[in-house]
Amino acid sequence: MMIDNTDQAEQELSPKIFLRYCDLIYDVAGIKLGAQKESLLKARVSKRMRALGMNCFEEYLSHIENDTSGTEIVELLNAISTNVTYFFRERAHFDVLGETLTKLYNAGQTSIRIWSAACSSGEEPYTMAIMVRESLPESADVKILATDISTKVLQRAKSGIFDYKSMEKMPDKYMSKYFTRITEADAVKYQASDSLRKLITFSRINLAKPPFAMRGPFDVVFCRNVMIYFDNEVRRGLLSEIERLLNPKGLLMVGHAESLSGMLSNMKSIRPSIYVK
Ligand SMILES: C[S@@+](CC[C@H](N)C(=O)[O-])C[C@H]1O[C@@H](n2cnc3c(N)ncnc32)[C@H](O)[C@@H]1O
């Protein structure tokens, strides 16, 4: 996501107002913004304020707090979230996913459910969908749920249209098999095939506010590169909800930089960043 620094000099974000933004963002989304995030917040919020014709951080804060429709807080979260992602990120997780799908199918499991929690713009669930197509026959009953807090990234994910940049790590053979080159606003993009798209359902879920309105149970959950933004209290609440929603022997994949030691009561680590219930 680009950070636009224009106009910053014109506006003042006092330490007191910055802390009020931090508290609000933590209360709503569990995201901990440290003091080092002040200029990032300032740049991103300024952009949203300009779109609304506002130039005072306190005024915008009151605008969010008084917005009973709840749409402006979603705009704030859209503005501040970090959405970096790409196809086949942390490839080993997708290899394990492929092996697990084959194992479950061969053992006679008739339906398989997968969840991409914090899916960002969709590269993660679409990579899962490629693994499903590569591992199982078309008739297999597999569903992928892809969720995020940001409505902006969910909209992009639903479109199934990607820039080449996020596809660089994808093996070439999948590019031609599952994507069509298209032109959108004079730029070359890649559109995912219907065979991938029909496996995925998108929904907005705030991981900081369990319990989640979904039935589960899931066989595999990817919850990667999002817990780094949470403190231990939010992480614990989320992990116990994931444990609840997983099938016995279900797998949880987390980002390689995320250590969960001592936070999972019913799961054990089987490889770095992979846990089994
Ligand atoms: C860095 S991306 C990770 C994307 C993907 N899982 C991956 O590893 O490539 C982090 C995502 O977490 C989402 N996020 C942040 N706070 C969240 C929350 N409270 N609930 C759900 N999603 C959240 C952001 O909107 C963003 O899309």
What do these coordinates show?
By secondary structure, the protein is an alpha/beta fold. It folds into two domains: 8-80, Chemotaxis receptor methyltransferase CheR, N-terminal domain (Chemotaxis Receptor Methyltransferase Cher, domain 1), CATH 1.10.155; 91-160 and 191-276, 3-Layer(aba) Sandwich (Rossmann fold). Helix content is 40%, strand content 20%. It contains ten helices and ten strands. The chain has helices at residues 15-29, 38-52, 57-65, 71-80, 91-106, 123-135, 151-159, 172-178, 194-197, 232-245; strands at residues 111-117, 141-148, 161-162, 179-184, 187-192, 200-204, 218-223, 246-254, 268-271, 274-276. Helix 2 crosses helix 4 (71-80) and helix 5 packs across helix 6. The relative contact order is 0.12. Residues 1-9 have low confidence and may be disordered. Bound molecules: S-adenosylmethionine.
Helix and strand pattern: HHHHHEHEHEHEEHEEHEEE
Taking strands numbered 1, 2, ... along the chain, how are they ordered across the largest sheet?
A: 6-2-1-7-8-10-9
**How much helicity do the residues have?**
40-55%
Please name the fourth-level CATH homologous superfamily of the largest domain: Vaccinia Virus protein VP39
In CATH, the architecture of the largest domain is 3-Layer(aba) Sandwich
Structural class: alpha/beta
Number of separate domains: 2
Low-pLDDT stretches are 1-9
Q: Roughly how many Å is the radius of gyration?
A: 20 Å
Bound molecules: S-adenosylmethionine
- Would you count the extended β strands for me? 10
The coarse silhouette is globular
The number of helical runs is 10
- End-to-end gap: 35 Å
CATH class of the largest domain: Alpha Beta
